[in-house]
Amino acid sequence: MLFAAWNEHEAVLSRVSRLLHDDVSQVLSAVGLQLDAMRMDFRDQTPGVDSRASEIQELLEQAIEQLRHIGNELNPSIVERAGLQFALDRLIGKTRAEFPGTLRLRFDPAVRVPNVLAKAFYKIAECVLDLAKATPGCSLIDIQVKRARGEHVLEISDNAPVDDAESPPLGQLLLDYYAFKNHLTLKTERRPGKGSTIRASFPLPASAPERTPESGS
Length: 217
Prior knowledge:
Layout: H1 2-42, H2 49-74, H3 78-82, H4 84-96, E1 102-107, H5 115-133, E2 140-148, E3 151-158, H6 170-181, E4 185-191, E5 195-203
Parallel strand pairs: 1-2
Antiparallel strand pairs: 2-3, 3-5, 4-5
Helix pairs in contact: 1-2, 4-5, 5-6
């Protein structure tokens, strides 16, 4: 029930993001075009209309940019539009503003992660970053995307203190859910007093051409 509610929450955010991008932003853009046309029509009759219209257009552009930023925050479709590496760079830049420690990303330039798998990797990275930065004593997070032994691999290590006697946090259950939903192999190594390593992997197409994330097969 919890994960079903989470899925519905993400679906609602996705719909809101599309509404902001496809409807509201386009309406504001159309207003800007109409304003420009009106400025041309009344330029001779109304002194100063150019400067006033320019000021209004600047405000419209700021509003459109803010809506675009909000839309990206609500829905990480940036993975589809710009690729996993760019999306992770952006995620890390956002996390650095809230995380006082060292945050590293190593992305193998030869890796071409399919979109569906890239979205799953992004979700896992986002969840792990949230867990690590919220843990007192964490000062290092290392993210690596690579190919290894015929697999696409996302590996995230941190030095957040862990107690092996504690129950896994709710975030770990969420990671397990993302892995199950996308047919990923997820391995979590918790080293008491040292930190954790989370490894998500999926076979390269040549190794398993019949199996794709979320295919249900």
